[in-house]
Design goal:
Blueprint (H helix, E strand, L loop, with lengths): L7 H4 L4 E5 L6 H14 L2 H6 L1 E5 L5 H11 L4 E4 L16 H6 L4 E4 L2 H7 L3 H13 L3 E6 L3 H5 L3 H13 L4 H6 L1 E4 L13 H19 L1 H6 L1 E5 L7 H5 L6 E4 L6 H19 L1
Parallel strand pairs: 1-2, 1-8, 2-3, 3-4, 4-5, 5-6, 6-7, 7-8
Bound molecules: 2-phosphoglycolic acid.
Length: 274
């Protein structure tokens, strides 16, 4: 039995559950998925937990119109963006364009962007600045590979990624961020990190934010866990003191499984308030 979120009311960090759809769902499928989610998600749940969905770029306008038109309490997110607002960058989408569509969150530096598309720590840092320039909230992803974990290099890897990404941000900006701890070996594998390992990493990341930006930034920054999150493991991950939310891939594609995860998070926070 998982206990209530220890100290949740004390820290006052709102939980954030984000669905990263990756390259899944065309705009028609997106419409159905979000409408279905809207029917399931209760106002009381949305009052306790922030929820975002991150569809492919081609779906954003459709999902924006649906969310706004029907008043569905889900925030719109993107999966990536360029560092510039406009220019000769064939195939790219700018943070300004996302802001104009009502996007609120942008995933920055997902391991698939780093690994498959050559996104470096420098580009991650520049993208964070670009996203913040438009008053959007970045969800900055960090995480170690299986080899790095096996070699005892998890903390060194996380620290290098985090310091590389956050250089140049003010303490206020640091405090407004969302970080996502996503161990690469847990993504899409069905093998989530244990709550203890996820907490160790999240606590470590919060400590680094404190070193860079001070105690207030460390207290405010929200840290998600991501990697094979399901309705079964959501509550035990969320019960950890430094884990404030979840970044969900596969289980976010269907409204039923995504809503089950949201419900597990709500239960965690509701029992704390009781
Ligand atoms: P997963 O993906 O939940 O399918 O493991 C998580 C992610 O890549 O953000």
């Amino acid at each position: 039995m998982v206990s209530a979120k220890q100290g949740a009311s004390r820290t006052a960090r709102r939980p954030l559950v984000s669905g990263n759809w990756k390259m899944h769902h065309d705009h028609i499928e997106a419409l159905h998925a979000v409408r279905d989610l809207g029917l399931r998600l209760k106002r009381e749940e949305a009052a306790l937990v922030d929820v975002s969905v991150h569809p492919p770029f081609t779906d954003l306008r459709t999902v924006q119109v649906l969310l706004e038109g029907e008043g569905i309490p889900v925030m719109l997110g993107a999966q990536h963006c360029h560092t510039e607002d406009a220019g000769a960058f064939t195939g790219e989408v700018s943070p300004r364009m996302l802001a104009r569509l009502g996007v609120r969150f942008v995933i920055v530096g997902h391991s698939e962007r780093r690994r498959l598309f050559g996104m470096t720590d420098e580009v991650v840092a520049a993208t964070l600045v670009a996203v913040l320039r438009h008053q959007l909230t970045p969800i900055c992803c960090v995480g170690e590979s299986a080899e790095e974990r096996d070699a005892g290099r998890t903390e060194a890897r996380l620290e290098a990624q985090l310091r590389g990404a956050l250089a140049g941000l003010s303490p206020e900006q640091l405090g407004s961020l969302v970080l996502a701890y996503e161990p690469i070996w847990a993504i899409g594998t069905g093998r989530a990190a244990t709550p203890v390992d996820a907490q160790d990493a999240a606590g470590f990341l919060r400590g680094i934010v404190g070193e860079i930006g001070g105690a207030e930034a460390a207290r405010s920054v929200r840290i998600q866990y991501g990697g094979s999150v399901t309705a079964e493991n959501a509550a035990e991950l969320l019960a950890e003191p430094d884990i404030d939310g979840l970044l969900v891939g596969g289980a976010s594609l269907q409204a039923a499984s995504f809503h089950d995860i949201i419900r597990a998070v709500v239960a965690c926070y509701r029992s704390d308030a009781a």
